[in-house]
Amino acid sequence: MSTVNVDPTEIEKFSALASKWWDPTSEFKPLHDINPLRLNWINDTVGGLQQKKVIDVGCGGGILAESMAQLGADVTGIDLAEKSLKIARLHSLESGIKVNYQYISAEEMAAQHTEQFDVVTCMEMLEHVPNPASIVHACARLVKPNGWVIFSTLNRNPKSFLFAIIGAEYLLNLVPKGTHHYESFIKPSELARSARQAGLAMHQLKGLEYNPLSKHYRLSDDGSVNYLMATQKIST
């Protein structure tokens, strides 16, 4: 695993929580809460997921992957946390929603399946790997020319430290303490640069905000903390 773009402590962190992936009241509650927002935004951005070939990079327990399949996409989900994949496969059997889950790195998948997908999603993952640019390049290799690559991650600035770590982890207990590391956050300009270097053009940037009073999330134009970035592969 030493040559794979993965942080073993991050894998252990998510593996320890694997059984709770589909419990909407667990540590994964924020992912359940934001999933309809990001699903609808992805669906609208790519012109509809139905009959599109999609790969979810860093799929975890399959929350987004299943919901995209439910909209009619042919979905593959990949991850390097075996326990999370086991939960994803079990839930797929229970729900009857078919997703092809594979234990494989993004880089290896890209080498084996270059330009095979209409849409690539990589959500809440880049901030958990040692080399996020390598993941961006793998996603770009996976997608067909003119296809879509959708990322979501955390901005790096004093506000994001206050909101995503102090607020979310210590004050509001939205996610477990130690979930995020500020130095691993990625500025939109940095992600956009990695995307350009990989042959992806940025199409749209959306912020994801949380209101602690109403306890609701919403998409906005403020990407100062959480943000989603839609990119499109430049056709050559």
Automatic annotation (TrEMBL):
The answer to whether the entry has keyword Methyltransferase is yes
Recorded catalytic reaction(s): these are: a 3-(all-trans-polyprenyl)benzene-1,2-diol + S-adenosyl-L-methionine = a 2-methoxy-6-(all-trans-polyprenyl)phenol + S-adenosyl-L-homocysteine + H(+); a 3-demethylubiquinol + S-adenosyl-L-methionine = a ubiquinol + S-adenosyl-L-homocysteine + H(+)
Keywords in UniProt for this one? Methyltransferase, S-adenosyl-L-methionine, Transferase, Ubiquinone biosynthesis
What is the species listed in this Swiss-Prot or TrEMBL entry?
Paenalcaligenes hermetiae
Pathway(s) served: Cofactor biosynthesis; ubiquinone biosynthesis
Question: Origin, by domain of life?
Answer: Bacteria
Q: State the organism's lineage.
A: Bacteria, Pseudomonadati, Pseudomonadota, Betaproteobacteria, Burkholderiales
Record function comment: O-methyltransferase that catalyzes the 2 O-methylation steps in the ubiquinone biosynthetic pathway.
Q: What is this protein called?
A: Ubiquinone biosynthesis O-methyltransferase
**What biological-process terms (Gene Ontology) are attached?**
methylation
- One GO molecular-function entry: methyltransferase activity
Record family assignment? Belongs to the methyltransferase superfamily. UbiG/COQ3 family.
Q: What is its EC number?
A: 2.1.1.222, 2.1.1.64
- Name the Pfam families on file: Methyltransf_23 (PF13489)
CDD domains to which the protein is assigned, alphabetical = AdoMet_MTases (cd02440)
Return the InterPro entries for the record.
Answer: SAM-dependent_MTases_sf (IPR029063), UbiG_MeTrfase (IPR010233)
